[in-house]
Amino acid sequence: MKKLLFTCIAATLLMACQQGPVRYTQNSPEIDTVKKLIANYDSKVFDTSMYADTSKTYYNTKDNPMSPSETMDYHKQTDTNYSSRGFQKENQDYEMVVTDDGETWVNCWLNWGGTLAANGKEVSIPIHLTYQFAEGKIVRELGYWDPTEIVLTLQQIEAEAKMAEENSASE
């Protein structure tokens, strides 16, 4: 009887100690894919191979998604505003989670820095990016940051250029 009781207790403990699938990690192939995507951005390599063809990207919006090629075009267009730009190497945090619905997401918190080409002003912005994966490919990308400082500075530069143009035309 003691053996039976001991066997039942041991079996119960063994089952209780078995872990299910990993639902949170800071090391995964998906995180490596995101790190490669960030490195590509920093090197101005506009590669869409990490995205599924149907992937949708949303930056600071929940409407008007961009396709992978439109996302790369967006980066190329915004690059014209900067003499240099990229993600800072320190304080980068990455995590992968599997939701209760079985979706795989990689979240990252990064600091971005850039120097405006028009006036040399340096800007640093914290950014949150999150990527949903399916079958090893990015199927959805969400990016959130506060662009206010850059937008206001570019508007000021544009207004000053317009005023200078008007002043030279009236002379």
TrEMBL record:
Domain of life: Bacteria
InterPro entries attached to this UniProt entry: NTF2-like_dom_sf
The protein's name in its UniProt record: Nuclear transport factor 2 family protein
